[in-house]
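Re-run with default settings, no changes from the original entry. Doing this only to confirm the output is reproducible before filing.
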Amino acid sequence: MNPNMGNPFTPPGPEAKVFVISVAAELSGLHPQTLRTYDRLGLVEPGRTGGGGRRYSLIDIELLRRIADLTAEGLGLEGVKRVIQLEHQVAALSLRVAELEADLEVAHRALGTVANLPVRAAAAQVTLYRRR
């Protein structure tokens, strides 16, 4: 009897570091030496095997494609590094804003309109006038 009969195979997720450098290079459209350079510069962080071989995830490959796009647009590698840092920061902040909005919605529902809670402002344009 097969011990895995009750446990169907679950493929690894996009964060699993499973691709060797040659496969990652082919999937990203870059040369393996370019991947090594990006690793040294800290643009991508592949996993390592016991023997020191690099392993890349699908997320790493998407990042490599993003780096290739940015460099093709004329950005230098330091600029690419900064853009990627800022994109990660924006994503984290967007997630935090969504969490806070959800918390605020829960508080509004729990306390009703009697509470003095902030409300999310609708997108609006404000025009300022000054007296002369």
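The radius of gyration is 24 Å. Helices lie at 21-28, 32-41, 58-72, 77-111.
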